[in-house]
Amino acid sequence: MSSAANPLRDAQDRRLPRIAGPSGLVIFGVTGDLSRKKLMPAVYDLANRGLLPPGFSLVGFARRDWEDQDFCQVVHDSVKQYARTPFREEVWRQLGAGMRFVPGVFDDDEAFARLKSTIQDLDSSRGTGGNFAFYLSVPPKFFPTVLQQLKKHELSDAPDGSWRRAVIEKPFGHDLASAQELNRVVHQVFRQSDVFRIDHYLGKETVQNILALRFANTMFEPLWNRSYVDHVQITMAEDIGIGGRAGYYDGIGAARDVIQNHLLQLLALTAMEEPSSFDAKALVTEKLKVLNAVRLPKDLGRHTVRGQYAAGWQGGRKVPGYLEEEGIDPDSRTDTYAAVKLEIDNRRWAGVPFYLRTGKRLGRRVTEIAVVFQRAPYSPFDATDTRELGQNALVIRVQPDEGITIRFGSKVPGTSMEIRDVTMDFAYGESFTESSPEAYERLILDVLLGDANLFPRHQEVERSWEILDPVEEFWEAHGRPEPYTAGTWGPQAADEMLARDGRSWRRP
Ligand code: BG6
Predict the structure, then answer these.
(1) Catalytic: which of 76, 262, 303, 458?
(2) What pLDDT is attached to residue 15?
(3) pTM for this one?
(4) Residue of 238, 438, 440 with the most ligand 1 atoms within 8 Å of its CB, for mutation
(5) Model pLDDT, residue 140
(6) Count of alpha carbons within 13 Å of 421, Cβ hemisphere only?
(7) What averages of pLDDT result for each successive group of 10 residues across the chain (508 residues)?
(8) Domain containing 310 — which CATH number?
(9) Boundaries of each Glucose-6-phosphate dehydrogenase NAD-binding domain copy (predicted)?
(10) What pLDDT does 11 receive?
């Protein structure tokens, strides 16, 4: 009987968990921060949720004089410290039995030969079936060497009936030309459909919920256009500084670090048309279409701002300025704050500005998308009664307080017709009993399942650089970033940028 004829079975099938088939994961750069804080815990959480096959194997590759047990201990410690789900001895034992470590540097042929025989051993001892994903969690300068070594040692060639996939961590280049070159190298070794570029924001539940909010409901989409929307603000604020990441961050800066990827992906999901389905190809088509319609304002001096944090107070303690951070060139012009105004040249959004901002050491950690609506075309109320009425807004709270807020005006109880803003809230924690998986759990599982919906394609990456490159070039040619005190909401120029348009930033 077809599932269409049997709705009950169809409903049950949809509740079946998506479980990865026989497979293994090789992590290059396994001693790095990302691996310890995110990747290893995510693998354990997946195993703990029963979403990995019994013989799943994890191979670490790095320049360390480690045996398998040493690697196992490192994973154990990171799981204990960072995993989302409780530690269970039996899950750990099964996962630990499939852990291997291959010591070596990236241009060492012998190390790659050892990696090859390790994979073959795992195929016979753990039944991984030749299916391996190679996770490049390494500085971009090593990408070409690792990829070429995988090719040279035939590790990128999937034996018959199995798969080999590459997972690439950002940054995908630092401008359009370097991204194109990187994509050329990657595609010399892996087919497009076997390359998974990580943008971990797409793995967040709240980000996937943008699609549900817009396309599973009827009440929002009719308003989601230039007739009702005044402007959109996309904010990714962090309270942390650059921590131990000076080597990566200096010279890269806030705009390249997160606007080029996370924020432009949020913009694409917020502004795109409804895709014909939710498979990777249909989603990329729509995201790319809207990214192609994105336009920078002509006068970049008036519509972009960059800043750099100076010493200040945060969380009750004194924190150093960016230029005093360890490993930073005291004359660095790197932006730790960036704000950009973008327009979208299409029928839906013509004339509606999208303001994107991000920064380190801001007032607090918050990521949100605020769709701010126009004021009512006519107000029948006394001006004094609506003094405290702002603009209606729908705010998608990506993190940390996941949910959606709608802001609208309401009568203040009493004898007059005073109207004030109130909010209506949906909070994940209150509406669902399930807790949200970490972005990396979802993304690693998708790689093992070969599901590319939540991974940007190279055309999106390149288009995003094309949007950002003129801003970076403009900044390069024009002075220094404006200092802002740590713990505040960024440089004054950012407030002025919006004030010139008769608007102001939200203070989340
Ligand atoms: C990364 C950036 O992509 O995202 C970091 O490189 C940033 O600079 C991080 O701190 C923030 O991620 P999240 O999930 O904590 O918002």
Answers:
(1) 262
(2) 63
(3) 0.95
(4) 238
(5) 87
(6) 13
(7) 45 70 97 95 98 97 96 98 97 97 97 98 98 95 96 97 96 95 96 96 96 97 98 98 92 97 98 96 97 98 98 94 96 98 98 98 97 96 94 97 97 96 95 92 98 96 98 96 97 98 94
(8) 3.30.360.10
(9) 26-209
(10) 47
User: What is the per-residue pLDDT for 315?
Assistant: 85
Largest CA distance in the chain: 84
Check the annotation: does 238 bind a ligand: yes
Q: At what angle do helices 40-48 and 439-449 cross, to 10 degrees?
A: 70
Identify whether residues 93 and 241 lie together within a single domain.
Answer: no
Together in a domain, 274 and 374: yes
Give domain status of residue 107, yes or no.
yes
For tokens 């924001």, name the residue.
201
- End-to-end CA separation in angstroms for the chain: 53
Ligand 1: atom nearest CA of 238 is: 10
238 lines ligand 1 (CB under 6 A): yes
What atom of ligand 1 comes closest to residue 257's alpha carbon?
6
Please tell me whether residues 240 and 151 are part of one structural domain: no
Residue 438 Cβ < 6 Å to ligand 1: no
Instruction: Provide the 10 A C-beta neighbour count for residue 363.
Output: 16
Q: What pLDDT, on the 0 to 100 scale, is given for residue 177?
A: 97
Inside any domain, residue 3: no
Q: Is 262 a catalytic residue?
A: yes
Residue entry with tokens 């990865």: 20
Residues 482 and 416 in one domain: yes
Q: Which amino acid is at 213?
A: L
In a domain, 1, yes or no: no
- The alpha carbon of 24 and the centre of ligand 1 are apart by a number of angstroms equal to 26
CA dist 151 and 133 (Å) reads: 14
Residue 215 lies in a domain: yes
Q: Which of 120, 147, 169 is the last residue before a domain boundary? A: 169
Q: Determine if residue 170 is labeled as part of a ligand binding site.
A: yes
